[in-house]
């Protein structure tokens, strides 16, 4: 070999080092890396077949033969890896069964390199241009067939799976390449190895198969862009969005439109976009005119509008935003979002809110009625049904607490127990209805004579009791006289009676002014003691001739 040959070889290695550098450092996907490795191994086979015929040295020829078959092993493994990555089944590489495949490939590779006792390849006519093959070669062919079967199975699984149409399209290209290469390799083996003694060798069959399969990939790469992953991902993302997307250049020409928008707008890539064609109903036209003004007169501003289209029976939110590069607008992005469902939900929510509000008002009304009813029931529980004043039960509960406080604070108080004189005569002479009128009239007179802090309660039939808090015996005596006078002066007019009815009352007055005595008894017992005392005073007033006051001072 001359110096020029070595220069070319040196340049080849430099270029190869640059290829490895780019391969390792540039950010590309695993699929790209596998394909580049696969494509590089495809180049080596025809190169080795050519180089084999350029030398007469048997050792160099053997080197190229071994390099060719080492390349074919790598080509087989690369093809399988490429198939796995392309079909998205990279998880298969993590399985232990895959390791067996690598081990077998490594053993065959070692056998090819070592060629023990020429069990892989034997020279013919003193060289390796024409050669025969040993058992290791047939083991290699078996490995090749098994690898092809595995690749075909993976491809078949991908084609019958639920993979996207894009994946299936890529797998179809791989299938064509596998079939072409397999046919040519098996023909090469059959015609040039099995039948080499009966017919002349047909050169370049495997190389031709590699070339045709590579052409399939070149066509697919340029026509279908199966490796343009960024574009594919970009298009897949845009097409899967429910948001309608329209991309325009600076001349308002459509450069991108996704599937969500296509059924709603009559535009194709390359058409000129006319904003006036989107004019909505009159009821939203004013908002759209403002949007249109901003769109046309202020193109660098982002603008948005929501309008209703009768043709679509939908509320559409339209957003226009400029695409700016280096402070220069190079296009626009328009997004179209269907908000009909949102409006429907809002309408349903408002309707539900109205229903809930009506129910709340009804519940509030019921609550008010219940509250009023409870108040009435509570009032009925503590008042006398005939006169409307407090009943004995309420007075008893009230006075139990009052007595304790009065004893602690040493506040004087008085209790008046009064009884209508000869009330039975009123009932007998005029009837019970007139008697009820007399009782009610007497209660009104007593109420008018009392202070706000005083308590009036019906003690029994025609007996009433008055509690005068914070009142000494002098004041209590004056109040009792005043009440007695007012009752006696009261003239009760009854429709059924020709003349007015007058009554008098007898009173027992109990004044508590001395707190030196300690009450060890319970409030109930103390109250019973007070009631008993004032009752005795009333009894004395009746026995003394009625219409008078008997006072007991403690």
TrEMBL record:
Record's protein name: GGDEF domain-containing protein
GGDEF domain: residues covered: 411-554
Keywords, ordered alphabetically: Coiled coil, Membrane, Transmembrane, Transmembrane helix
Pfam entry (one): HisKA_7TM
Organism name: Paenibacillus odorifer
Domain of life of the organism encoding this protein: Bacteria
Regions crossing the membrane: 6-27, 64-87, 99-116, 136-156, 177-195, 201-221
SUPFAM superfamilies hit by this protein: Nucleotide cyclase
The keyword Transmembrane appears for this protein: yes
Coiled-coil region(s): 339-383
């Amino acid at each position: 070999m001359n110096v020029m040959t070595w220069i070319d070889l040196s340049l080849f290695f430099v270029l190869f080092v640059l290829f490895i550098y780019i391969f390792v450092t540039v950010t590309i996907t695993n699929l790209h890396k596998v394909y580049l490795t696969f494509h590089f191994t495809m180049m080596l086979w025809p190169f080795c077949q050519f180089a084999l015929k350029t030398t007469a040295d048997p050792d160099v020829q053997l080197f190229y033969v071994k390099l060719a078959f080492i390349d074919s092993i790598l080509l087989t493994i690369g093809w399988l890896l490429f198939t796995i990555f392309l079909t998205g089944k990279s998880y298969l590489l993590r399985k232990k069964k895959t390791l067996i495949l690598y081990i077998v490939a490594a053993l065959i590779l070692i056998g090819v390199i070592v060629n023990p006792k020429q069990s892989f390849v034997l020279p013919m006519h003193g060289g390796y241009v024409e050669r025969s093959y040993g058992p290791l070669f047939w083991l290699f062919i078996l490995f090749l067939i098994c690898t092809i079967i595995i690749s075909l199975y993976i491809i078949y699984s991908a084609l019958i799976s639920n993979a996207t149409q894009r994946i299936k399209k890529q797998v179809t290209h791989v299938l064509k390449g596998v079939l072409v290469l397999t046919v040519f390799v098996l023909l090469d083996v059959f015609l040039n190895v099995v039948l080499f003694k009966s017919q002349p060798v047909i050169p370049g069959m495997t190389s031709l198969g590699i070339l045709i399969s590579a052409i399939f990939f070149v066509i697919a790469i340029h026509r279908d862009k199966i490796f343009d992953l960024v574009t594919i991902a970009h298009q897949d993302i845009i097409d899967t969005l429910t948001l309608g997307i329209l991309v325009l250049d600076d001349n308002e020409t459509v450069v991108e439109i996704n599937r969500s928008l296509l059924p709603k707008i009559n535009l194709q890539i390359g058409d000129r976009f006319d904003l006036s064609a989107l004019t909505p109903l009159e009821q939203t036209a004013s908002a759209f005119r403002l949007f249109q003004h901003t769109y046309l007169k202020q193109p660098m501003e982002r603008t948005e509008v929501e309008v209703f289209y009768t043709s679509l029976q939908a509320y559409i939110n339209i957003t226009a935003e400029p695409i700016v590069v280096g402070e220069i607008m190079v296009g626009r992005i328009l997004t179209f979002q269907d908000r009909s469902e949102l409006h429907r939900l809002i309408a349903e929510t408002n309707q539900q809110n109205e229903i809930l509000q009506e129910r709340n008002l009804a519940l509030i009304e019921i609550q008010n009625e219940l509250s009023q009813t409870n108040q009435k029931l509570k009032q009925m529980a503590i008042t006398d049904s005939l006169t409307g004043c407090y009943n004995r039960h309420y007075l008893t509960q009230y006075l139990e607490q009052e007595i304790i406080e009065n004893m602690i604070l040493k506040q004087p108080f008085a209790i008046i127990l009064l009884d209508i004189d000869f009330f039975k005569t009123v009932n007998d002479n005029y009837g019970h209805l007139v008697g009820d009128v007399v009782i009610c009239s007497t209660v009104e007179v007593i109420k008018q004579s009392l202070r706000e802090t005083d308590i009036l309660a019906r003690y029994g039939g025609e007996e009433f009791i008055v509690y005068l808090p914070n009142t000494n015996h002098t004041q209590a005596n004056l109040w009792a006289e005043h009440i007695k006078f007012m009752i006696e002066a009261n003239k009760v007019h009854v429709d059924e009676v020709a003349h007015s009815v007058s009554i008098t009352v007898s009173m027992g007055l109990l004044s508590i002014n001395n707190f030196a005595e300690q009450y060890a008894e319970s409030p109930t017992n103390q109250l019973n003691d007070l009631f008993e005392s004032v009752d005795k005073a009333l009894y004395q007033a009746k026995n003394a001739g009625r219409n008078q006051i008997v006072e007991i001072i403690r």
